[in-house]
Design brief:
By secondary structure, the chain is an alpha/beta fold. The protein contains seven helices and six strands.
């Protein structure tokens, strides 16, 4: 009796569900991802061998540029529902008798670091192009007669007591400017802060 030869079938994997899942995840990340706004100034930080990672939330950031201008930033903390940036802007505005519209407050909440007198803040927020906004970045006043930087730090700490201070200074910045920033922090009773640096590669040589 002749043997029946069964046809050999090549195993086949249906990739359609996996492709659908890939596009579903891609769409989800595209809709939920928020890009970090551009900083007010490019800072070339000095090198160090410290490997401590600076926090990403609950941070008060002070940037010192190479031309000794000081910029300020604060995030919304871990709970964005508190609207910390909006609260800080409102309180600093009240201190100088400046009122911001709800639209300006909402827009400011999504922006990054800034450096200008408070009187120019509304125009900076409402600027329609990046070039106009960059031209207003002249640094935050911090002299003895008009120390606006101290006000920003004061109300930032009131809005978020858990915020840590971080200084990001340019490698070419004058130490006197950095020292002045440190004095303002200490006057606000902030004695612990982070210094942002670039990690330097250390070459270890074994000698006989």
């Amino acid at each position: 009796m002749a043997k029946l030869k069964l046809p050999v079938r090549t195993p086949r994997i249906d990739m359609t569900p996996m492709v659908d899942l890939f596009f579903l995840l891609l769409t989800f990340f595209m809709l939920t991802t928020t890009f970090r706004p551009q900083e007010a100034v490019q800072v070339d930080t000095p090198y160090s061998i410290s490997e401590k990672i600076s926090p990403e939330r609950n941070v008060i950031t002070l940037l010192v540029s190479k031309d000794d201008k000081v910029f300020f930033n604060i995030d919304n903390g871990k709970d964005s529902a508190k609207h910390i940036r909006k609260e800080v802007l409102e309180n600093v505005g009240k201190q100088y008798k400046i009122t911001f519209t709800p639209e300006q407050l909402d827009r400011f909440e999504k922006m990054a670091s800034f450096g200008m007198p408070i009187v120019n803040m509304a125009a900076w927020i409402s600027a329609t192009d990046q070039k106009s906004r960059d031209e207003m970045q002249k640094g935050i006043p911090m002299d003895s007669t008009n120390n606006e930087l101290a006000m920003w730090i004061l109300f930032a700490r009131k809005a978020n007591p858990n915020a840590e201070a971080t200084i990001k200074g340019d490698n070419l910045a004058d130490f006197k400017t950095v020292k002045k920033v440190l004095d303002i922090l200490q006057a606000a009773k902030i004695n612990r802060f982070n210094l942002i640096t670039n990690l330097q590669k250390v070459e270890v040589k074994l000698e006989n």
